[in-house]
Design brief:
The chain is an alpha/beta fold and about 180 residues long. It contains 8 helices and 5 strands; from the N terminus they run E-H-E-H-H-E-H-E-H-E-H-H-H. It has a single domain, classed as HUPs (Rossmann fold, 3-Layer(aba) Sandwich), CATH 3.40.50. A 5-stranded parallel sheet has the order 3-2-1-4-5, sandwiched between helices.
Length: about 180
């Protein structure tokens, strides 16, 4: 058990997108166990609660065809310092997805800081697949709030959750109405 390579892919996943799932699947192929750390991030004001976001990730993992890969994926909530969570769970590598060059500077600084705090934990960057490079949870939420079609960016299960959330929350819809896509 001590030789297990445990990876951690942290994020808010509010909501989980096709781009997230692409990174999750690919990361799970290079580690023995992948923790998907769903950050509580109450300060970010997530649209979905942490339990709902964990359930969305679980629902997406449940439909991964390669069951050997899917069985390695464990979504769970975390808060606090990422390296503390990683250390406490035996993580040897933190997985980060990069969509564009603009992501790199921030991610590089974060990886350097994490390495300073915990030299035994490496950071592995995975480039987003071409078809997912432009997807962000923030844009998906804004498009969904305006009644736009999000099925190109999220699964039908997540799209249904978004529709349900926005149909029941007129303040979210009116707040996003100033954005145009």
């Amino acid at each position: 058990m001590a030789d297990l390579r445990i990876g951690l892919y942290p994020g808010t996943f509010d909501p989980v997108t096709n781009g997230h799932m692409d990174i999750i699947y690919r990361a799970a192929r290079v580690v023995d166990k992948l923790l998907v750390g769903v950050a509580r991030n109450a300060g970010k004001g997530p649209l979905f609660g942490v339990d709902e976001r964990i359930q969305m990730v679980k629902d997406e993992v449940d439909v991964i065809e390669d069951r050997k890969v899917a069985e390695r994926i464990v979504p769970q909530a975390f808060d606090g310092l990422l390296v503390d969570y990683a250390r406490n769970h035996g993580v040897s590598v933190i997985i980060r997805g990069l969509r564009a060059v603009s992501d790199f500077e921030y991610e590089f600084q974060m990886a350097s800081m994490n390495r300073h705090l915990e030299p035994q934990i490496e950071t592995l960057f995975l480039m987003s697949s071409d078809r997912h490079q432009f997807i962000s949870s923030r844009f998906v939420k804004e498009i969904g709030a305006l009644g736009g079609e999000v099925l190109h960016f999220v699964s039908p299960r997540v799209a249904d959750r978004l529709r349900t959330r926005f149909q029941g929350d007129s303040s979210v819809q009116s707040g996003a109405a100033s954005k145009v896509y």
